[in-house]
Specification:
single chain; Tetracycline Repressor, domain 2; 20 helices
């Protein structure tokens, strides 16, 4: 029997949000802010002045909330036909379309004001790009048309690291693009685990999510490969961090091991919804963990540990030199 949203995320039972807040999808925002901080940590400009940091996170949160409201506006008819979403604020009539649209406009304008005035135009432009990517690219164009909707549409969720880097330095360095790519690879495994849980809901309304079109087995196989790619790319952070990432790499090992273990277990029994549920939850914790480790690695003690460790190993462990080392290792393999 399919799991309900409340069974997947128990806090939904305990915490009932007012309609105006519910449509902003606030549960999604903390992870977006975590990756924004991760993008900052990958930049030479870390740590940021407190005011610029606050404006970046505040503006990013408001832009993400605006995207959530616009998503609810576009999908209100679809939500009304799905059992698990029919009680949402718009299809249930607890909030009017006019009010929701006014909230979206207010959130967008406030976010733009904060980011332009308190950060810079690049960060503001990237936040707007993320909003448009989520609403137009993913929600409107891709979600109802292709099984690869989340693979391509995942760009929306991968933009916050670029916003963080732009806020820190005013430009986008290689480290921020590495974290962008990591989130892109992480997204399919994370979302398809959820799609396995909600497969029948998507099937009922004709949304071509991968489990609906290809089945649970093919989805679990795809999840395994994306998780493996995520693990491999995550290790590049050892060299991508400006101050060296040896501490990050060592502490990341158990996170990666657990991710691979859970994807392998799901691959062995793709129809086990409890395994899919566990992977979905762990994937959230995993990305939070990666961002936390990036921040820890940028602390003075973390950078000192990494630099001393790299010196003992005879490696260059930071910035462009680190990427040069990775490139030389890859070219040497061929």
């Amino acid at each position: 029997m399919p799991l309900t949203r409340e069974e997947i995320v128990p806090s939904r039972k305990r915490l009932k949000l007012p309609p105006w807040l519910e449509i902003a999808k606030p549960r999604l925002i903390p992870l977006l802010l975590a990756t924004t901080l991760g993008g900052m940590a990958m930049s030479e400009g870390w740590p940021l002045p407190p005011l610029r940091l606050a404006c970046t996170l505040g503006g990013g949160a408001l832009a993400a909330a605006a995207a959530g409201v616009l998503n609810c506006l576009w999908e209100q008819e679809l939500d009304g036909r799905m059992q698990r979403t029919s009680g949402r604020a718009l299809p249930s009539g607890r909030l009017s379309i006019t009010t929701a649209f006014a909230i979206a406009v207010t959130l967008t304008l406030t976010a733009a004001t904060l980011l332009v005035g308190g950060v810079n135009c690049l960060a503001a432009s990237l936040s707007l790009l993320g909003l448009c990517s989520y609403v137009l690219l993913y929600t409107v164009l891709l979600k109802p048309r292709t099984t690869q909707n989340i693979v391509i549409g995942g760009v929306a969720g991968a933009i916050p690291p670029l916003v963080g880097a732009a806020a820190a330095t005013g430009h986008l360095g290689l480290g921020s693009w590495w974290l962008f790519a990591l989130v892109m690879l992480w997204t399919p495994a994370h979302f398809w685990a959820l799609a396995l849980l909600l497969k029948e809901d998507y099937r009922a309304v004709g949304i071509p999510m991968l489990p609906v079109v290809k089945g649970s087995g093919a989805t679990a196989e795809a999840i395994r490969w994306y998780a493996l790619a995520t693990v491999v790319l995550s290790l590049v952070g050892v060299w991508a961090l400006p101050g060296g990432g040896l501490l990050y790499g060592l502490l990341l090992l158990p996170f990666n091991a657990r991710l691979l273990q859970m994807t392998w277990n799901l691959h062995k029994d793709p129809d086990d919804l409890q395994r899919a549920k566990g992977l979905f939850r762990w994937s959230i914790f995993y990305l939070f963990g990666v961002c936390l480790l990036l921040l820890m690695a940028r602390m003075p003690a973390g950078e000192q540990f990494s630099q001393q460790g790299f010196a003992l190993l005879g490696w260059s462990g930071s910035g462009n030199a680190g990427f040069t080392l990775v490139a030389s290792l890859v070219s040497g393999a061929f």
